Amino acid sequence: MARLTINGKTLEVDVDPATPLLWVIREQVGLTGTKYGCGIALCGACTVHIDGAPMRSCVLPVSAAEGKQITTIEGLAPNGVLTKVQQAWLDHDVPQCGYCQSGMIMAVTALLKDKPKPTDADIDAAITNICRCGTFQQVREAIHAAAKA
Ligand code: FES
Ligand code: FES
Questions:
Q1: From the CA of 104, which ligand is nearest?
Q2: Closest ligand relative to 98 C-alpha
Q3: How far apart are the CA of 117 and the centre of ligand 1, in A?
Q4: By alpha-carbon position, which residue is closest to atom 4 of ligand 2?
Q5: Cβ proximity of 146 and 84 under 8 Å
Q6: 49: which strand partners?
Q7: Is the shortest distance between the CB of 56 and ligand 1 below 6 Å?
Q8: Residue 128 DSSP symbol
């Protein structure tokens, strides 16, 4: 059994403590915005925030997330008002197939909290998410737009 706080709601789930958080979020809790890409912490599709820090949930045992604030893409705009990152994503038509984009947005949101005006070098260092559709240029433009918003 694990006691988790996800997007401000606390719940108990009946899982092995070693289960990756990603599967608990998707299968037990039903929040499917967080995606599975590689399963080995390389692609970033599964990025969520743990106490505000971006973490790759495919390799994080659920036991490591107990007692922490877990935020998924569904929790970024709880009142339906888009964040400046989400708005920049829309304004710059960033998503193509969209599969990597929730993880990308979570990573970028954490970057801008840490560095409100990131340079291209900051972006390259922090945003290592992989996009098979090659949206990297639009991602960069949208990050700079969100930083100015
Ligand atoms: S699915 Fe977690 S990093 Fe790729
Ligand atoms: S938008 Fe398709 S994988 Fe990134």
A1: 2
A2: 2
A3: 27
A4: 131
A5: yes
A6: 54, 71
A7: yes
A8: -
> What pTM value is reported for the model?
0.97
Q: Which residue CA neighbors atom 3 of ligand 1 most closely? A: 41
Q: How far is CA 126 from CA 71, 85, 121, 140, in A?
A: 19, 15, 9, 12
Indicate the helix (H) or strand (E) that contains 88.
helix 84-91
The values of phi and psi at residue 67, to 5°, are 80, 5
Segments of the chain scoring below 70 in pLDDT: none
- Strands 69-71 and 2-6, how do they pair? parallel
Q: Across 47-104, where does the E strand assignment appear?
A: 47-50, 53-56, 69-71
Rg (CA), the chain: 15
Is 39 near ligand 1, meaning CB less than 6 Å away?
A: yes
Q: For 95-112, how does the pLDDT look when each residue is reduced to its tens digit (9 = 90+)?
A: 999 999 999 999 999 999
Which two tokens mark 118?
A: 């990131």
State which ligand 1 atom lies nearest to the alpha carbon of 42: 3
For tokens 């996800």, the residue is 6
